[in-house]
Amino acid sequence: MKKFLISVAVALVAVVVVNILASFVYTRFDLTEDKRYTLSQPAIDVAQKFDSPVVIDVLLDGNIPPEFSKLKTETIQLLESFASKNKNIAYNLVDPLEDESLAQQTIAELQSLGLQPASVTVEENGKVSQELVFPWAMVNHGDRTVKVALLKNKIGSSAEERINNSVQQLEYAFADAFTKLSITEKKSIAVIKGNGELQDRYLADYLTSIREYYNIAAITLDSVASNPQDVLDQLKSFDMALIAKPTEPFSDQEKYVMDQYVVNGGKSIWLVDQVAMEMDSILAGGGSAFALPRELNLKDFFFKYGVRINPVLVNDLYFTQIVLATGEGNDSQFDPVPWYYNPMVFSKNDHPINTNIEAVRYQFTSPMDILENDYDKTVLLQSSPLSKTDGTPRQISLDILNNPPDQETYTPGNMPLAVLIEGDFVSMYKNRVKPLKLQNTIEEGTANKMIVISDGDVIKNQLRNGRPLELGYDKWTSSFYGNKEFLVNCTNYLLDNAGLINIRSKKVSIPLLDVKKIATEKTKWQIINIGVPVILTLLFGVFFGYYRKRKFAA
């Protein structure tokens, strides 16, 4: 008995000593196979920038469906990881619908802030009900607040895939929010004008989305004709140039200015329509219009960097819908119909830019050829395996809806629609006669990046009553597409020197319970989990009583 008491005392002392040491030395061990609780170094770096409190309100407290309970747990685990790197980071769990009497008012207030709820169908004991959940977090620092969407939806994803997608993007989502709150010196983006590019109201949502990261200004190439050196000097002060759907040809002088900009290290995103065709033209033309090649005088520019945009249209069986009106007056109806010239482009999830994004909507796009040269080319988006090309000039008519497509003719498929070009940029005018004289020109530059997208409408937001809608939202079908996230990722990849965008490549896998299996085997597992421990306890008691009788009887 004395030895037993000594052993207990030693164990208690050891526990007390370990706890005292743990209060001075804190560490965490990530035993998950995918290391999802081990923060990436760029995320750690941005979290450690704060020297004053950062409070995160997670709106996932209360009685929430099991699917969101898993998301809540993963979110808390991640925030604890961030808190372990910076003691100024803390979080609160909030139930926004705790007061049922104010539920409708609270829902309206949250929606006015842009926090859209998720409607979840809950089935329990044979009863089906609808519940609203707000899968959001609010990151607060000083007088600034950044919203973080915790739920990541993708078209056609199952409940398990939705949770995996959501958990996979959590680290990047919070690190991105920390970046927005801590950024002090912004890089700058020039929106190129002068060649019939999209008006600002059609770029409004994209520009608003990146304004928290970057300074934005317009540069007009019209002045190249009178003062090309001044235009180039202005351009060089910007880190990236955005060329959104030009419709008028670039002069050789303008092209040379852009050439010198990219050779001198300026990043660029080109959204180019090689075919002139708009849905409005078809509707205004009584149901048909001619698609014509568009001459922008950029073929040799892109050819130098290893891509060629072909003046043909992609016809894809993975399509998005358009809405057509039928009938007249009170009998009119609006029906969604398939439109094969508006591809729904799914990502291969093989690059930080395209990982875990929703399908991107293209409209009257053209395929690109990838040419062999010294530059590294990465296809970010491509058409579906069931896609083909239609040559131009060509009459595009709504009558194609009356003729079922022949799937056998939809080849070759998988045609590049967005390409990232990386390498040491060389001037396309090297060893050529220059169209004008500029100061301090160079013919061979250093490492640079460029993204070419063969559809200007990828960046175009719709309007309602003259006001811009969210980029990627189609007001006619009420569908959301991943255009904004894709373009923001493109921008961040080109300009992010800290490598934060690379967090998007992190893969996690969350094993979830099979709902159907739970329903069919519920009774069996209740018996096992409740009955087996009781039986084992009784058996141990019988055995221990028998053992004591034998021992003391002797």
UniProtKB/TrEMBL annotation:
Domain (ABC-type uncharacterised transport system): give its ranges.
186-490
In its UniProt entry, what is this protein called?
A: Gliding motility-associated ABC transporter substrate-binding protein GldG
Q: Which domain of life is it from?
A: Bacteria
Record organism: Flagellimonas marina
The lineage is:
Bacteria, Pseudomonadati, Bacteroidota, Flavobacteriia, Flavobacteriales
| Keywords of this entry | Membrane, Transmembrane, Transmembrane helix
Q: InterPro entries this protein is in? A: ABC_transp_unknown (IPR019196), DUF7088 (IPR055396), Motility-assoc_ABC-rel_GldG (IPR019863)
- The gene behind this protein is gldG
Query: Transmembrane segments in this chain: where?
Result: 525-547
Q: Where is the DUF7088 domain?
A: 33-139
